Amino acid sequence: MTGFRRVDESKVHQGYVWHLATAEFESPDGERFHRDIVRSPGAVGVVPLTVDDDGVASVVLVSQYRPPYDDYVVEIPAGMRDIEGEDVIEVGRRELIEEAGLEAGSIELLGEIYPSPGMTDSVTSICLATDCTEVATDRQGPEEAFMELLHVPLSEALAMIDAGRILDAKTVTGLLMTDRRLRSTGD
Predict the structure, then answer these.
(1) Residue 26 region by backbone torsions, left for phi larger than 0, else alpha for psi between -120 and 50, else beta
(2) Distance between CA atoms of 125 and 64, rounded to whole angstroms?
(3) Is residue 53 very low, low, confident or very high in pLDDT (cuts 50, 70, 90)?
(4) pTM, to two decimals
(5) Do 21 and 37 meet the contact criterion of CB atoms below 8 Å apart?
(6) Residue 64's Cα: distance from chain center in Å?
(7) What average pLDDT does the segment 95-104 reach?
(8) CB burial class (10 A; 0-12, 13-18, 19+) of residue 121?
(9) DSSP secondary-structure letter at 85?
(10) What is the largest CA-CA distance in the chain?
(11) CB atoms within 10 A of CB 143
(12) 175 compared with 55, residue with greater pLDDT
């Protein structure tokens, strides 16, 4: 159905995990055009869910400095699929320990998203972690060293989306997917 085809692609810059490519494409009517593309191994975001004795669902979020915005961003724990061949669930488990100091008793894939399809081929997998226990964190780099953990009722996290306090796409998606899952299972 697409009728588009990639004619050529070359790497312009190799970063630590991503690389920047410039590519030439041909449209269905034969027009040639160029686009810059960030090639990425993808990422995994994890919604750590806890339920208290009263049945109130809560999530653990991180507030982390993000250089592109020169500000702190509220997010679900997440990280790059930067170890070749590592399974999505294993990446989720690793990132949950690194960033939140939580080990999931159970973790499942909720779905996948294209976080910015106009500029990157990155796919972000969204997981739900339950039965979490506290363990030592293994934070990597200065941004993680200064991140803050936020324990928030799920209803409050959803209100933070509505209020514009959570803007990160994977976090918005993960929280909405989690809420939908809980509503569909009656939990």
Answers:
(1) beta
(2) 20
(3) confident
(4) 0.91
(5) yes
(6) 13
(7) 94
(8) middle
(9) T
(10) 63
(11) 15
(12) 175
Q: Is the CA virtual torsion 176, 74, 45, 170 positive or negative?
A: positive
Q: Give the model's pLDDT for residue 187.
A: 60
Beta strands in the chain (DSSP E): 5-14, 19-26, 32-39, 43-51, 57-66, 71-75, 78-80, 102-103, 106-113, 124-130, 133-134, 148-153
Given the structure tokens 């339950």, which residue do they identify? 130
Which amino acid appears at position 124 of this protein? Answer: T
pLDDT at 185: 82
Transcribe 137-174 into DSSP letters.
----HHHHHT-EEEEEEHHHHHHHHHTTS---HHHHHH
Give the pLDDT of residue 178: 97
Q: CA-CA distance, 58 to 103, in Å (whole number)?
A: 16
Domains annotated for the chain, with CATH where assigned, are 5-39 (no CATH), 43-185 (3.90.79.10)
% of residues, the chain, pLDDT over 70: 98
Whether the Cβ atoms of residue 76 and residue 61 lie closer than 8 Å to each other: yes
How much of the chain is in helix, strand and coil states, percent to nearest 5?
Answer: 25, 40, 35
Residue type, 62: V
